Amino acid sequence: MDSQVTTITTDEGRRAAFDIRLRVFVAEQGVPEEIELDEHDATAAHFLAEAGGRPVGTVRMLRRGGVGVLGRLAVLPEGRGSGLGAALVRAVEERARREGLAAVELHAQTSARGFYERLGYVAFGEEDEEAGIPHIWMRKDLASR
Fold this sequence. Notes:
145 residues; 4 helices; 30% helix; globular
């Protein structure tokens, strides 16, 4: 299936990304909607993954000091296992490199830890909870590709 990841620049793209996040995090995982869509969406860089011309995945990147913070990575069931999640992570890393950021950090659901480790991320700190779901902070230094 033909797929691509693009930076969201339109209201239509933003609506598609928010719809994916609501379907994955709110409907599937039970995250309260009021914490899923937050004040950081206004300043984040958002990316959209499409497969067969349909939006199936999204992620956002915030800047925190000299670090990019990857968040809200969501892929619909029909896009899972296709490599789109990894492509979305690479899009964030490429953006962070272009912006001169030293690393990318993320607050991963512990069930996704292996996925991020395969992409070069290393866990740090203690596990904690967000929206009732166990999470761990992870980091990838961009200088060491």
